[in-house]
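Recall the central idea of this unit: under ordinary conditions, the amino acid sequence of a chain determines the structure it adopts. In this exercise we apply that idea directly, starting from the sequence alone.
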Amino acid sequence: MLAATVTMIASIPGQTIGVGVFADFLIMSLGISRVQLSAAYMAGTMGSSFILPFAGRAIDRFGIRIMVVVVSIGLGFSLATLASLEYVINLKTVRSTAFVMTVIIITFMLIRFFGQGCLTVISRIAIGKWFNHRRGLATAISGIFVTFSFNASPLYLNSLIQSYGWKEVSIILAVAVGIFVSLISWIFYRDAPEDCGLVMDGNDDPAWLNKMSGKIPNTRKEFNRSEALQTRSFWLFSAGLSAQALVITAVTFHIASIGSGVGLSRPEVFQLFLPMSGFAIMGSLLSGWISDQVKLKWLLMIQQISLSTGTLALLYLGSHFGQALFSIGYGISGGIFSTLVTVTWPRFFGRKHLGAISSLNMSIIVFASAVGPVVFSLGQSLTSSYISILIICGMAPLIVAIASLKADNPQEKITCELA
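Accordingly, the structure predicted from this sequence is:
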């Protein structure tokens, strides 16, 4: 659990919450527009989403220990490439827009594939493989550190950039992830408890297991990826998690621009993520504990309502009331998101094909996150404000919240059939 927490935190430079801090500096340094950067980010993220399912199969085949080391080194290399973007682009005497955009797209694709995609999936699979009845609790404990780190990172990274420069910070992150995180992962990661002569949850007491199975259905069937795709629950949960990714990615990527529209400076905007982390930790702790007690569809509903609240609150970001709702809504939705994306798939579909199923879901999430920033850019460009797009994205999660009533655990149906 601790190793998975470290690698999840290490994925921050590949997440939008990390990349977004570099956005304005990339625009100035590379001489491109915000729309062009958003388009490159979208294309790179989409490219990574298309190859993520193949990475999932590799995780199932080679194991999480080997893959986490390879992926950490890959993310380190990608961050070093980001720092070298201006140098690479200037290698050509005549800079064409096509060449500049191609280089940026490839760089973003690598960062998103190794960071947001592979490293995140592996970290969640690790907890999914080592815990069953206490999976929610383990996720909640891990989520405390992950959530605080994610929400504190924009302010911290911005401070580092102001002190050392964006290229230098990118190199520092490359070394930290590529060398130190990969070494830590090799030392502490193990593929499954059975490989170490242990059992899931660390408890093999029959009475305890029988008691817990009354709250969480045992894995009666190991679903493969094709079978998982045939269930309504896979698509409803994927829709809810993707809605979170699309909106949060877009808002995080453009938060400095959104804030400037209501008179907030960069430090003032990034400081809003700190109180958000408190609510995210609360959401992660409560949802992690509750997820071991109730059906996950209720958490999905609450998560979508919170997402809607945080998004609509951006319409009033210039006021203290709007800032409070923004932090509460996004904090709670983010905390529940981290629980659902870790707990849902092993509980619904088992562990045998967890890499293939989780990576496919992550591919959908990554694709949705790719669309968000460019949609917000176009919305702002066409209407000279973010109001219209915020209203649309604020109402959409409510539709998913209603549909989530049908998102039942497929294992329950199999349990009933066997009974």
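The CA atoms of residues 220 and 411 lie 6 Å apart.
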